[in-house]
């Protein structure tokens, strides 16, 4: 996957990842301009930053290296994100992308093409699969103060369709019994072309998009009775890990 053209701007506002790897891309809306965001992120007193910013004209700016954590997703308030690690700052394991504009704006085509290219490159570079829990809006982390981020005009349906490859039916999907199976599931997804990953909700039901996939690989938990299921489970987490290791070869 070719790296899109990115203009380095830099920000003094960043930290290390404390040993965590990025497992999700978090999309934001600037509620302002790209130039204004450049200036704000360059100001140490703002104490905020993002890894990237995408302008309406399609220009991509980078403020923080991927090996470091940006200061964009740290506040957790009534989250709706199953991959959240309790007690750990989300900045340590996320990558953030800001988008020029306001909440209700319809994204310009040049801006959409650039953010699509950036998402694709990040997914390949960081091994992040396509799933509704690994590509999220800021509102999934803070549903109170950031309920409108990345905005009502963000093209979620088009983005996921293009990232998956334009097919309404997934060819392969990975289903995790709990979020603790995420890293094993990521390795399984990588073996299958970084396919989509789903996490069962608290009631352990199976998401409709997962059961609708042509092939479903289940990591942990019981069978889903999918007609083309690969079950990588055991009586405990150690047996499940052994089943995954055997599958990965």
CATH topology of the largest domain: Lysozyme-like
**Total count of strands:** 12
Across the major sheet, the strand order is 1-5-4-7-3-8
Count helical runs. Answer: 6
Q: Explain this structure to me?
A:
- By secondary structure, the chain is α/β, with parallel strands linked by helices.
- The chain has two domains: 6-164, Lysozyme-like, CATH 3.40.80.10; 172-248, Rossmann fold (3-Layer(aba) Sandwich), CATH 3.40.50.
- Helix content is 24%, strand content 18%.
- It is built from six helices and twelve strands.
- Helix 4 packs parallel to helix 6.
Tags for this entry?
four-stranded parallel sheet, 2 domains, Lysozyme-like, six-stranded mixed sheet, Rossmann fold, globular, 12 strands, 249 residues, alpha/beta
Q: What's a concise summary of this model?
A:
With 249 residues, the protein is an alpha/beta fold. Helices cover 24% and strands 18% of the residues.
């Amino acid at each position: 996957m070719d790296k899109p053209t990115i203009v380095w701007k830099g920000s003094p506002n960043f930290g290390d990842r404390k040993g965590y790897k990025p497992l999700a891309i978090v999309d934001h809306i600037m509620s302002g301009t790209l130039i204004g965001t450049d200036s704000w992120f360059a100001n140490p007193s703002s104490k905020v930053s993002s890894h990237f910013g995408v302008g309406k004209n399609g220009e991509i700016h980078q403020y923080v290296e991927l090996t470091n954590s940006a200061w964009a997703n740290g506040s957790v308030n009534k989250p709706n994100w199953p991959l959240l690690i309790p007690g750990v700052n989300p900045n340590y394991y996320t990558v953030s992308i800001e988008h020029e504009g306001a909440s209700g704006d319809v994204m310009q085509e040049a801006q959409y093409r650039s953010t699509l290219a950036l998402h694709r490159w990040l997914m390949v570079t960081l091994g992040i699969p396509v799933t509704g829990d690994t590509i999220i809006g800021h509102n999934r982390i803070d549903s109170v103060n950031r309920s409108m981020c990345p905005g009502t005009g963000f093209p979620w349906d088009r983005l996921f369709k293009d990232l998956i490859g334009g097919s309404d039916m997934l060819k392969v999907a990975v289903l995790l019994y709990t979020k603790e199976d995420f890293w094993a599931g990521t390795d399984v997804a990588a073996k299958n072309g970084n396919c989509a990953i789903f996490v069962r909700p608290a009631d352990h039901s199976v998401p409709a998009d997962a059961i609708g996939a042509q092939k479903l690989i289940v990591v942990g938990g019981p069978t889903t009775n999918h007609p083309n299921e690969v079950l990588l489970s055991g009586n405990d987490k150690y047996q499940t890990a052994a089943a995954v290791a055997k599958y990965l070869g």
